[in-house]
Specification:
This protein has about 230 residues and is an alpha+beta fold. It has one domain. The chain is built from six helices and seven strands. Strand 4 and strand 5 form a beta hairpin.
Length: about 230
């Protein structure tokens, strides 16, 4: 991920809005930038990258203009999925990032989530980093991934976009260490089959999970030891 976001804050914003434009993001994805919450060390603020807003502008494809929330539709999807998982399985903690809320920033609305950290309090490593560092899937990684998948299935989490860079291994206020999916969850299909059928969602989740593991091995090749 890049470490720079083109700064284009809103011209008007509430006086209480967080000022993030002068800060260096912790991570930059295809659509969002992730910042440390300047007032709460255990929280992150995710914002839409300004250069990506044209996707939802007047010249955007008609399907992009349909959601009333426009470029914030992903926020709604993830918050809704977190609430749904907690509501339907109140005795369990789904292995997805804990959603905290929405806040005004100088980049527009920001999605506030709890930070998942490693033993030193830094951002938890991604599955991709662990896989590369360990030179493959160790028994410990295999066991943690099995627990992760079982948690998704037990809480009937709908997975929209899973890859080895949005799954991290660490702890938060709910405990750990464990794998946690930090974004990409929630129903994305126009016909919400996963929402309508738990069996369908279970099938799709297993398929997406298996595909993610294959893709990881393709994108992060591990060279064989020489000698």
């Amino acid at each position: 991920m890049d470490s720079h976001v083109e700064s284009s804050p809103l011209l008007t914003m509430p006086a209480s809005a967080l000022r993030l434009a002068a800060l260096t993001p912790l991570a930059v994805g295809q659509l969002r930038a992730v910042y440390q919450h300047p007032q709460n060390r255990d929280e992150l603020v995710k914002v839409i990258r300004p250069e990506m807003l044209a996707r939802w502008g007047k010249r955007a494809r008609w399907i992009k203009r349909l959601p009333r929330a426009m470029h914030y539709v992903g926020y709604l999807r993830e918050i809704k999925e977190y609430i749904a998982a907690r509501a339907r399985t109140p005795g369990l903690d789904p292995p997805i990032a804990r959603m905290i809320g929405i806040i005004d920033t100088d980049f527009g609305l920001g999605l506030v989530t709890e930070k998942v950290v490693d033993a030193n309090g830094a951002l938890a490593p991604t599955l991709a980093v662990m896989y590369e560092k360990s030179r493959g899937f160790t028994p410990a990684i295999h066991a943690a991934l099995a627990e992760f998948l079982e948690g998704l299935l037990a809480c009937n989490v709908i997975v929209g976009d899973m890859h080895a860079w949005n799954i991290v291994y660490g702890t938060d206020s709910r405990g750990g260490n464990r794998f946690v999916m930090i974004d990409g969850f929630g129903e994305k299909h126009a016909i919400p089959l996963s929402s309508m059928s738990r069996a369908m969602n279970r099938y799709r989740t297993k398929r997406v999970f298996a595909r993610m593991l294959v893709r990881l091995q393709e994108l992060v090749p591990i060279a064989a030891d020489s000698g």
